[in-house]
Write a structure and sequence with these properties.
It comes from Weissella muntiaci. This is DUF4811 domain-containing protein. Keywords: Membrane, Transmembrane, Transmembrane helix. InterPro entries: DUF4811 (IPR032083). By secondary structure, the protein is of the alpha/beta class. It folds into 3 domains: 2-50; 56-174, no CATH class; 179-250, no CATH class. The chain is 49% helix and 25% strand. It has 7 helices and 8 strands; from the N terminus they run ααββββαββαββααα. It has helices at residues 2-19, 23-50, 113-116, 145-151, 179-193, 196-220, 226-250, and strands at residues 54-64, 75-81, 89-93, 103-105, 119-126, 132-142, 159-170, 174-178. A 4-stranded mixed sheet has the order 1-6-7-5. Helix 6 (196-220) crosses helix 7 (226-250). The longest helix is centred in the first third of the chain and has 28 residues, at 23-50. The chain is elongated. It starts with a helix and ends with a helix.
Length: 251
């Protein structure tokens, strides 16, 4: 609509200055039309440069996430930092518990670079017991139908102003590692499995640690049901596995 209005004002301004013979009328009407034309141009310019007539609207989506690998009782989040200092990562994890392979998130879309620069993927360690992903998407939307009809010429409505995906992983039952560390862990596990003596010793050590944690839980919760004990055992197993992986990576 604004383009049509600008054309009308431009033609009217030209016609006024060119064909209106009465000086006072020509000057007054021509000046008013020039001001209106200038305001139209300014409004369109501000819309494109500063989103005039629009406002930011945010939506939040949350979902559970699952380990990038089923090889360990501990959850695994594989990361790759984008840049050297930015809190922006490529993250690898599974979207469902029965996923056959993990999914990669946060890879910049080179075909839509203008949108990609407004998107960020990161992670946080948390005291929660469940890993989740929270995506906050902020879009530019029209304040009302007047602005949409007036300036909606370039498909600006719904344009992404910012999108941040944050994955929250439990600090005690999950391990955050780089792709290189994941390869090292796999190699270490393969080497251990190839040596029955080492594998048996690791399993025995892990079993002892888990049993100690479960015993402590049962002592603190003598009325715990069987399902609660099973849940505590699962958590203890994940904690022990996560601690073992962290110690292995630190060596």
């Amino acid at each position: 609509m604004i383009i049509l209005i600008m054309i009308v004002f431009a033609l009217a301004t030209f016609a006024t200055w060119a064909f209106v013979k009465q000086t006072t009328t020509r000057i007054v009407l021509g000046s008013v039309l020039m001001v209106l034309l200038a305001l139209s141009v300014v409004g369109l310019t501000l819309n494109f440069s500063n989103h005039f007539g629009m406002e930011k609207v945010s939506t939040t989506k949350e979902s559970k996430v699952y380990s990038a690998s089923s090889a360990s009782p501990a959850g695994m989040l594989i990361t790759q930092r984008l840049g050297t200092k930015a809190d922006n990562y490529v993250l690898v994890y599974s979207k469902t518990a029965d996923a056959k392979k993990p999914t990669t998130f946060g890879v910049p879309d080179k075909k839509h670079i203008s949108t990609a620069v407004n998107e960020r993927t990161t992670y946080r360690l948390t005291d929660k017991t469940t890993a989740t992903a929270k995506t906050v998407t902020t879009r530019w939307e029209w304040k009302n139908d007047f602005y949409r009809i007036m300036f909606g010429v370039g498909g600006q409505g719904g344009e992404i102003a910012k999108r941040v995906k944050t994955v929250y992983v439990p600090k005690t039952t999950w391990v955050v590692l780089t792709a290189e560390q994941a390869k090292q862990m796999q190699a270490s596990q393969a080497a251990a499995q190839s040596n029955p003596t080492v594998a048996a010793a690791q399993q025995a050590q892990m079993k002892t640690a888990v049993e100690a944690k479960v015993a402590a839980y049962m002592q603190a919760n003598p009325q715990a049901s069987q399902s609660q004990i099973q849940a505590a055992t699962k958590t203890a197993t994940a904690e022990v596995a996560a601690q073992a992986i962290k110690q292995s990576l630190a060596q």
